[in-house]
Amino acid sequence: MKKFLVGIALLLLIFSPVLAQEAGTQLPKLQGITVQNANQIEQIGILGRDTSNDKNLSDDEIIIAVASSYISDFVFSFDASKLAWISGNDIYITDFDTGKTILLPSAAYETVRLAFSPDNQFLGSTNGDTVQLWDVNQGLELKKTDTGIYGVSPSSLNFSADGKQLIGTAGNKAYSWDTSEESPSQIELKNRDFADDIILGSTRDTIFTEYLNKTVKLWNIETGENTFSFDADVRLVIESPNKQTIFVVNNDGGGQLWGLEDHTYHVLAQIPKMDTVISSAAFNLDASLLAMMTEDGMVYLWDTATEQVISSFKTGHTNYVMKVEFSPDSNVLATSSQDGTVRLWGVPAN
What we know:
With 350 residues, the protein is mostly beta strands. The chain is 4% helix and 50% strand. The protein has one helix spanning 2-15, and strands at residues 18-21, 30-31, 42-50, 55-56, 71-76, 82-87, 90-95, 101-103, 113-116, 122-126, 130-135, 140-146, 154-159, 165-170, 173-178, 185-186, 197-202, 206-211, 215-220, 226-231, 234-239, 245-250, 255-261, 264-271, 278-283, 289-294, 298-303, 308-314, 321-326, 333-337, 341-348. Strand 7 (90-95) and strand 8 form a beta hairpin.
């Protein structure tokens, strides 16, 4: 009986979330980042560990310091109260209200994509081969399944708008997993040239593909129909939260803003080349600002109305930069890097 109880205790330890830090420094009160205050952005916190300097971070601005590895992805919850992030092979969830961070148990090896459900209760994660569903509040895995796509790194993961399905893309395939079912189904895009039409990524309801390095196509996930196409040689496609604007980064380093009007897209602005290549980009809530992060670790904030850069800053990352993203309420801008950190930026309230 004693051995049995010890075995149960060990199982609970293995499959229970680990409190990585009980209470770190909490975020200060913030204003939303807007066109008017974009030049007042400052660093407000750091998650992770700078692996290039091989030391834990430990100044007053830090939210949490965890010794691990490079950051492959991060995502804000829809209510902006939490940030899930991958460091090496570990998934962490940081609660900004409490400063606590938990480490999820038994994440799949080489997990590189995350997604919060719209109700903030669930987290999806994938390494391409496997997709997992987590209870955010309990920090426990609810279920996992094979994607049917093997040996290819995933390019995107999103919950559907109703939160019932996980939509993933990897390689040249896309799948939809109704989390009440055991396994996902492949998404079929009608009349698609599978050999020459490469998947770039997806949102909750749209898949982006590039045909022969010259045409971008938008596909409706539910119907499988091609809803719009335009000519561009692209390396990145970003959609605004209100779904009215698309930012396309060209392989030559420049880009365009496309706006939706009368059920079709039109070019709104040409964005010139930066000093180095744009590696990631994100819109704020109302798409008035576009944040562009370049490979040299600079962030440029573009006013979509006046069509010009109104602010820029160095992130301080010491290795290849990975991702820039606004929180859903636009209070926080986050940047990540292979240096092992997620850096948080904002405008403190007066």
